[in-house]
Amino acid sequence: MSDRLANGSGNTEAPLADIDAATKRLMSALDALESSVERRREADRDENELASRIQALGADRSRLADELDGSLVKSRKLERVNRDIAEKLDAAIGTIRAVLEGGEGR
């Protein structure tokens, strides 16, 4: 009977060792899973931050495009006014020359 007890306790240690090894593998797998989840969360945060930046850049682009359109309109108006003033100056210079030339002839 003492042989059976000795054999019985020896057999009990083997399953405990298997359970310990399985527990260690499970803990290792859970740690790896936790690390993977954390990396995924960081990637999602980075992705959300990138999406926010892209949205902000899009808003800036729209604002700058509107400002550029406004500047182009102002520039065209200034060009027209400049041409009108140049034409009026040319006419005034012509009138002054005509008056001066008319006065010299007397």
Summarize this structure as a short list of keywords or feature phrases:
mainly alpha; disordered N terminus; rod-shaped; 106 residues; single chain; 1 helix
Description:
This is DUF4164 family protein. It holds the Pfam family DUF4164. With 106 residues, the chain is mainly α. Helix content is 97%, strand content 0%. The protein has one helix spanning 2-104.
List the helices and strands and how they pair.
Elements: H1 2-104
In brief, what are we looking at here?
The chain has 106 residues and is mostly helical.
Question: How much of the residues is beta strand, in percent?
Answer: under 5%
SSE order, one letter for each helix or strand = H
Radius of gyration: 45 Å
Structural class: mainly alpha
Roughly what percent helix?
Answer: over 70%
Give the overall shape: rod-shaped
Major sheet, described briefly? none
Q: State the helix count.
A: 1
